[in-house]
Amino acid sequence: MRSVRARAALGATLVVAVALTVAGLAVLAVLRGNLTDRAGLEAEVTAREVAGDLALGMTYAELEPGDDDTHPVQVTDGEGRVVAVSKDLEAISGTGIAQVVPVPPAPTPSPDDDDDDDDDDDGDDPPRSEVSSDPPDFTNGTATVDGETADYRFAAVEVTTREDVTLTVHAGAPLAAEREAVDTVRTSMLTGLPLMLLVVAGVTWLVTRRALRPVEGIRREMAAITASEDLSRRVPEPDSRDEIARLARTTNETLTVLEASVDRQRRFVADASHELRSPIASLRTQLEVGEAHPELLDVPGAVADTVRLQALAADLLLLARLDAGERPGRTAVALGALVREEVSQRATDRVPPEVSVSDAGGSLEVVGSRGQLARVVGNLLDNAQRHAERSVAVSVRAAGGDVLVEVTDDGSGVPEDERDRIFERFVRLDDARSRDDGGAGLGLAIARDVAARHGGTLTVGEGPGGGARFTLRLPGKPQDAREGTAEEG
User: Fold this and answer.
1) Among 110, 276, 443, 473, whose Cα sits 20 to 30 Å from the Cα of 336?
2) For residues 260 and 275, is the Cβ–Cβ distance under 8 A?
3) Contact at 8 Å (CB) between 10 and 1?
4) Furthest-apart CA atoms within the chain: distance in Å
5) Taken in order 208, 211, 217, 223, is the CA torsion positive or negative?
C-alpha cells in the first residue's frame, strides 16, 4: 500500500483485532472456568448429601440418590463395584466406572456372629461412620438419563459407613449452562468483532486523512515551487504545534536558506562576469591596437591587465573550492614567521607595513593550511595599503589560547553600518570604487571564509588613529600537539 492513510488504518485495525481477540479469549476462559467451578460446587453438594445419608446408616435400598434428573449419582465400593445409581441413569463416563447396574448387596452378618465378634472384640469400639473432609476429585464426563445424553461435571466424595465399608459417591452437575453461556458470548464476539474493526478502520482513515491534510498542502506547494522555480514562495504552516507544523516551518527555513544561496550565486556569477569583462575587454583592445599598429602596443598595460585577470581567476577558484566544502590542511603554521614573510615582500610598496610580533604570552602556532592563511594575511595587508595614508601596522600576539593578528591603517576607516557588508563578495565602498587600483571586492570575503574554515573569526573595528583595524583570531595549536611535534623533532 502506497497510501499512509491506508497503512495507518490497516495497522490500527490489525492491532485492535489482535487486542480484541486476546481479550475475548481471556473472557471466554474466565467465564468457562467460573461456570465449571459453579457446576463442580453443585456436584460436590449433591455428592456430600448422598454420602451423609450413607454415613447415617441408610441402606442401598432406602437410598434414593439424585432424586432429580439433573444430578446423576453413582456409588461404588472399594473394589470398584457399583452399589447404587440414581433413577433413570442409563450410561455414564468420566467416573472411571462405566457400569450403571448395581450389584447385589453383600450378605449382612447375623446377630450370633455379631455376638461372637462382640465376645472376641470385647472392649473394642464399634466402627465409626464419617464423610471424608478432603477436597473432592473433579472430572468431566457424560451421562445418559432417561434417554438424554449431556455433559456433566462430576465430584467424587468418599464415605465410611457403620459397617466399616468405604464407598465413593460420584455426583454430577450439568454443564449445559456453561456451554450455552460460552457459546452465546462467543457468538456475540464473532458478530461484534467485524463491526468493531470496521468502525476502527473508518475512524482511523478519517482521523489520518484530517491529520495528513497539511502534508498534502505542503506537497502541492513544493510541487508548484519546483515547477515555477520561484523560491520566494512558502509552504503553508498549520496552526498546530505537532510534527507537521515543525516540518512546515523547517521546510520554509530551508527554502529561505536556499533562496538566499541561489540569489548569492546569481549575484556572484553576475559580478564575476562584470569583473572579468573589464580586464578582458581592455586586454583585447590593446592586442587589437597592437596588431594594427605595433608601435602603439602598450605592453606594460597588457601585462597589468593579464596579472589582474589572473588574480581574479585565482580568487574565483579559491571561492569555488571554499563553497564546495574544501577542508584546510592540518599542519602546524608559525603565524609570526608567516606574517614577517608577507610584510617583507611589501618593503618597497607605497606604504610599507610595520610588524610587531610578541610571543611572550604563549605560542603563536596554529593548525591549518599555510597557503590559505598566507592569502588571508596578504589580503588584509593589500586592503590596508590601499586605504592607508602614511602607515600600516601589523601585530601578532597570543591571547587566551588564541593567536591574534591585527592589521591597522590610518585611512578613513569603515563606517559602523558597513562593517558587516564589506565582507560580502564583490562589495566595495564608494571610495574604493574611485581608485583605479581598487580590487574586485573578493579579498575580504575570502579572508573571512578562510578564517571561518580554520575555526577563527575576522572582524573590523576602529583603529587608534581613526582608521580601520582588522582583527584575525585563530585558535592556537593545542599543547599536547605542540609537545608531540617537539618530541618528533
Assistant:
1) 443
2) no
3) yes
4) 171
5) negative
Question: Which residue has better confidence, 111 or 283?
Answer: 283
Beta-bridge partners for 354? 393
Architecture of domain 327-488: 2-Layer Sandwich (3.30)
One fold for 231-326 and 327-488: no
Domain regions of the chain by residue span? 4-182, 231-326, 327-488
Dump pLDDT digits (tens) for 339-379: 999 999 988 888 888 888 886 656 789 999 999 999 999 99
pTM of the model: 0.51
CA angle 220, 225, 230 (to 5 degrees): 155
pLDDT interval class at 157 (50, 70, 90) = very high
Q: What is the CATH number of domain 231-326?
A: 1.10.287
Beta carbons within 10 angstroms of residue 431's beta carbon: 12
Nearest to 137 by CA among 178, 95, 100: 95
Name which of 171, 170, 169, 161 is nearest 59 in CA terms. Answer: 161
Over residues 311-343, the pLDDT tens digits come to 778 888 887 777 777 778 888 999 999 999 999
Mean pLDDT for the stretch of residues 458-475: 91
The chain-wide mean pLDDT, for the chain, equals: 82
Cα 210 to Cα 207, 220, 244, 337: the distances in Å are: 5, 16, 12, 67
